[in-house]
Amino acid sequence: MQKLPIHIMLVVVLVSALSGIILTPGATAETGGAGTVQFVANGEDFVRQGFTSKDGWAIQFDHVYITLGDVTAYQTDPPYDAEAGDEVSAGVSVALPGVHTVDLAAGDADAAPIPVGTIADAPAGFYNAVSFVMMPAESGSAAGYSLVVLGTATKDDESNPFTLKFADTYAFTCGEYIGDMRKGILQEGGTTELEMTFHFDHLFGDADTPQDDGLNVGALGFAPLAALAQDGVVDLDMDALQTGLSSADYQLMLDILPTLGHVGEGHCHCTPPADTGQ
Question: Mapping DSSP to helix (H, G, I), strand (E, B) and coil, where does residue 106 land?
Fold first, then answer.
């Protein structure tokens, strides 16, 4: 038998120790049987704890309503490449029924990601890709909108309550979750968590990141929104944003929205709405 190179042996040992499952390159973690897949949505500490925008506005969020449908997990081989944006090649997939509106700002500053839904009796294996659609809610607090963001932005002696309402539909297809822990490995009788992550620093920028960093260069910030306040209140839907923002800032915002969806730090391929011109 040909001896494996030492670096491959070390990878196999590490994965075995962490998960009890040996994975070969390009393979799913087939174990047989079934378990439970839990889908969660995460706005990260930016939403739970607030942050300062690239242009110095301290932002606190009261509610971040996001509506998700067509939520699906896949066991893909080869692994899905979000940069390429090709079709998912999956031997196994499980879909969460229904459309789900959740509040990413629910709970305290240390709250866990928000439950979206659960699939019982999902085939065991390695779920290394996820897809979902951000779509308008049909009822409830976000009716008519796919994303509603409410909070307060403060700078110096100015404080602006704000509501931002987005109605467009965005379809995200993502590869494996990238973060402090590995997610998606489902063993027989077990439970695995699959996370849909949303990066709101892409919209507002982050004062703790250098101004010339790509994050801040590509972010809108809050100042262009504050300039549209009426009686100290920012309340804007897509029509008001298109009318009030400069054409360059409006296009920048349209470019940002398809980048919100992630899997941890892992990227997603997004199909934006046809009428944005993207």
Answer: coil
Scanning the structure block, which residue is given the tokens 């079709």?
Answer: 87
**How is residue 139 written in tokens?**
């009822």
- Residue 205's φ and ψ, nearest 5 degrees, are 75, 180
d(CA 200, CA 179): 17
Minimal CA–CA distance to 31: which of 196, 195, 184? 184
Residues of the chain with pLDDT under 50: 1-30, 275-278
What is Dmax (Cα atoms) for the chain?
77
Give dist(CA 43, CA 83) in Å, integer: 22
Give the helix/strand (H/E) hosting 78. none
- pTM of the predicted model, to two decimals? 0.86
pLDDT attached to residue 276 = 38
Burial string for 240-260 (b: 16+ CB within 10 Å, else e) reads: ebeeebeeebbebbbebbbbb
Rounded Cα distance between 18 and 27, Å, is 17
Q: Give me the pLDDT at residue 263, please.
A: 98
pLDDT for the residue 272: 80
In this structure, what DSSP letter does residue 214 have? H
Question: Contact at 8 Å (CB) between 131 and 139?
Answer: no
End-to-end CA distance of the chain: give it in Å, rounded: 53
